[in-house]
Specification:
Layout: H1 11-47, H2 49-84, H3 94-110, H4 114-125, H5 132-164, H6 169-195, H7 199-209, H8 214-237, H9 242-267, H10 274-290, H11 300-311, H12 316-343, H13 348-366
Helix pairs in contact: 2-3, 2-5, 2-9, 2-12, 3-4, 3-12, 4-5, 4-13, 5-6, 5-8, 5-9, 5-10, 7-8, 8-13, 9-10, 9-12, 10-11, 11-12
Length: 367
């Protein structure tokens, strides 16, 4: 009688760990979303629905069309930056990247975990033009440039806020910590790219070998290494594209300031300086990053705008109305993204499935 030696299957534990981690994020996202909805209801009640409706009426359909068009220009800038982030011999045109960016924005805004699938959604949207791994790497490259400029933008906004107003000591300390962390990360990121350091993947590997965060780093450490390879490879091949990509990201944020200033010019009896719009947009960017698990950053975006407008003595009602009007713009482009998803017959299961298969293929090649 022959004995059969069974080799333990390592995939179920890994799959179970990933599922457990994802479920934890879903619970956190659900709790934060419930909190955001409650906060939104409270803020609307505090200023009065009639005040908000009056502000919205001042914008009108024509004004809202301008707001929608300004955001379309921002989409074009991100799409062009992404186009430039695709390494030869592959290439994408704006007719490919613009719809894909709209789809990614829709996924990012609509879902509590949209930040985890928005990049994959963009890559899936152009899968008939470039291989999925090329799409994912180019999205990651463009996101790196975006993150660098966004961090710089937030730092300038935080410094301007500290220099302009007398704030509570706790607020000053919190803002100082944010500034310090962002500056450290920016310097670290620049040095990593210029010197092509790979200590990010090395640190992940050492943590994994010591038995910490094994569920996350089982695949994560290899993905970090792969990400480093993509970024450094792009830097070596296309250094001349860095400036135009950076310029696109800068213009993206400048248009955000223009959008805020335009809305304020309609809501306020007094023409507000561009610095006010700058402070509001920088706070909005920070809130969007910190509370990305909340769909449409509902509630927290309004609270942030209220804090700034009250500090500037403009009025809480204007801040909350401003955030709600911008949320209307987000809803419009989310609807456009969903229409594109339906037209292209892209499903959420396909996006998550493609991301998982891509990760397994890359890990297999590295193993």
């Amino acid at each position: 009688m022959s004995s059969e030696i069974k080799i333990p299957n390592s995939n179920p534990p890994k799959s179970h760990s990933k599922k457990k981690h994802l479920n934890r994020l879903k619970i956190i996202g659900a709790v934060l979303t419930a909190f955001g909805i409650g906060l939104f209801a409270y803020l609307v009640h505090s200023v009065g629905i009639s005040t908000i409706l009056e502000g919205i009426s001042k914008i009108g359909f024509g004004g809202f069309a301008i707001i929608v068009f300004i955001f379309f220009l921002r989409i074009v800038l991100r799409a062009f930056a992404w186009k430039l982030s695709v390494s030869a011999p592959y290439q994408l045109g704006l007719k490919d990247t613009i719809p894909a960016v709209i789809i990614g924005e829709a996924m990012s805004s609509l879902l509590p975990l949209g930040i985890l699938v928005s990049g994959t959604a963009k890559a899936v949207a152009v899968r008939n033009r470039v291989p999925l791994v090329v799409g994912l790497s180019s999205v990651a490259t463009e996101n790196l440039f975006y993150s660098f400029i966004t961090a710089t933008f937030i730092i300038f906004g935080a410094v301007a806020f500290l220099r302009t107003f007398e704030l509570d000591a706790n607020w000053v300390l919190g803002i100082d910590i944010v500034i310090g962390v962002l500056i450290f990360l920016l310097i670290l990121g620049i040095l990593m790219v210029l010197r092509q350091w790979r200590f990010a993947s090395s640190i992940c590997e050492k943590i994994y070998q010591k038995g910490y965060l094994t569920g996350i780093l089982e695949d994560g450490r290899k993905q970090v290494r792969l990400f480093e390879d993509f970024i450094y490879g792009f830097y070596r091949k296309h250094p001349n594209r860095f400036f135009p990509i950076f310029l696109c990201q800068v213009l993206y944020h400048l248009l955000g300031i223009v959008e805020v200033w335009f809305i304020l010019s309609r809501l306020s009896e007094i023409i507000q300086p561009i610095s006010t719009a700058f402070l509001l947009e920088s706070v909005s960017r920070l809130i969007t990053i910190v509370f990305k698990l909340i769909p449409f950053v509902i509630g927290v975006d309004e609270a942030g705008a209220q804090f700034v407008t009250e500090t500037l003595a403009i009025g809480a009602g204007i801040g909350i109305t401003l955030a709600i009007i911008r949320k209307g713009r987000i809803l419009f482009w989310t609807a456009m993204g969903l229409l594109l998803i339906i037209k292209r017959e892209i499903s959420f299961a396909e996006i998550t499935g493609e991301a998982e298969r891509s990760g397994e293929e890359e890990n297999g090649r590295r193993d």
